[in-house]
């Protein structure tokens, strides 16, 4: 089980996301008010707190949301989860659809540090069941296609 450290959104694409007190997740859409929400496979982006902390230890000066991540999660090695894994918390149910991403135009973090962790450590998910997520909420890892009762 993991814990949500931060929830971040942005109204426009191409800018850093900003931490918010909560996010409303809409099925097959993503986070209400977030620029990346919509009917596609990358509705919600997640990054592990451990990956961010390790990157900061190498000298990166980054704040929550700087990588474009919606959810920062402590206690789960997100990049090791197979596609299809489900994540449940706050009444929501997410399904992992992609691990990492190709970075076509290097971001400011890459230009400053010579690398960025989102392409290798970030994951993406679609919203199967909506609800509200807040910092401090727990996040459970469920097997792919788990049709069992999901903890809220």
TrEMBL record:
InterPro entries: MoCF_Sase_C, MOSC_domain, Pyrv_Knase-like_insert_dom_sf. GO terms for molecular function: catalytic activity; molybdenum ion binding; pyridoxal phosphate binding. It comes from the Bacteria. Residues 18-142 form the MOSC domain. It holds the Pfam family MOSC. This is MOSC domain-containing protein. It comes from Desulfovibrio legallii.
